[in-house]
Amino acid sequence: MVNVTYPAVDIQNLSFQYPGNGEPSFTHLNLKIAKGDRFGLFGPNGAGKTTLMNLMTGLLKPSEGSIALAGVKVGRHKYRVNRLFGFIPQDFSFYQELSPAENLEFFGAWYGLSRNKIKQKTDELLNIMGLEDVRDKQVQQFSGGMKRRVNLAIGVIHNPGILFLDEPTVGVDVQTRHAIINYLIELNKSGTTLIYTSHQLSEAEDLCNQVALMDNGQVMAQGSLDDLLEEHKHHDLEELFLNLTGKHFRDDV
Ligand SMILES: Nc1ncnc2c1ncn2[C@@H]1O[C@H](COP(=O)(O)OP(=O)(O)OP(=O)(O)O)[C@@H](O)[C@H]1O
Q: Which CATH number goes with the domain that contains 229?
């Protein structure tokens, strides 16, 4: 029997346009992300990072082309695909009036985990995220950093093989940023592929083994950090980023 290893993400000939929006967000985009990668998607405001993540997780539907996660087509096998990945969106995606423990119980059940498994994962994740002392308090009372950690715990409760994170460290203090990055590195060591967006180019060095720089719905450069800097003859990612994407502001109007 042939043992085929599929990429974690395989995007082929992807085109997408928001209804009523003149410019297409993507035209014939191809992108492969290998299993086991810590893949960072970087780009200026409006580059298309969130849109691409929403397409990869099936929240948006491509107008052309296909996306497969671990060989399974997104949009065609919803039940199978939804259990393959976890998604930590930019906006908080939990119930503010529930506690962290209740939120984890709810989402664990949604993923079809047994009662015992939910209890075990809840204890483990609240411990890792430093939320044990507030496990029964309403999340709406929490600071932004604590809410980010609740969001992260929910996204990984079912041990996903692929984890999508849209700006997971936005608006957090140094301690929470470190806790999140260290946890993600450990998760990756245990086999989870990470696909992550950020504006914080410094995080590429801390977290990513592969980087893609996006602008205007296109991947301008992709590779390991060292290879990219070497290939484009730049000293750091910020310099390369400005060189590839320009210095003008990208305010949406
Ligand atoms: N719901 C929507 N309807 C119409 N256009 C949209 C919608 N969401 C995003 N866009 C447009 O699509 C383009 C890509 O936006 P997107 O949010 O994917 O970029 P981004 O790289 O994630 O930016 P940021 O870093 O600011 O979050 C932008 O021009 C944006 O205005």
A: 3.40.50.300
Confidence of residue 203 (pLDDT cuts 50, 70, 90): confident
pLDDT band at 2 (very low <50, low <70, confident <90, very high): low
Write out the E strands in the chain: 9-16, 26-33, 38-42, 64-69, 72-73, 85-88, 162-166, 193-198, 210-215, 218-223
Domain limits for position 188: 36-63+78-245
Residue 26 placed within a domain: no
- Global confidence as pTM: 0.91
How many whole angstroms from 43 Cα to the centroid of ligand 1?
12
Residue 143 is assigned to a structural domain of this protein: yes
The answer as to whether 7 is a domain residue is no
Whether 251 is covered by a domain: the verdict is no
ipTM value: 0.97
Q: Which mutation among 51, 60, 170, 251 tests ligand 1's pocket best, with the greatest number of atoms within 8 A of CB?
A: 51
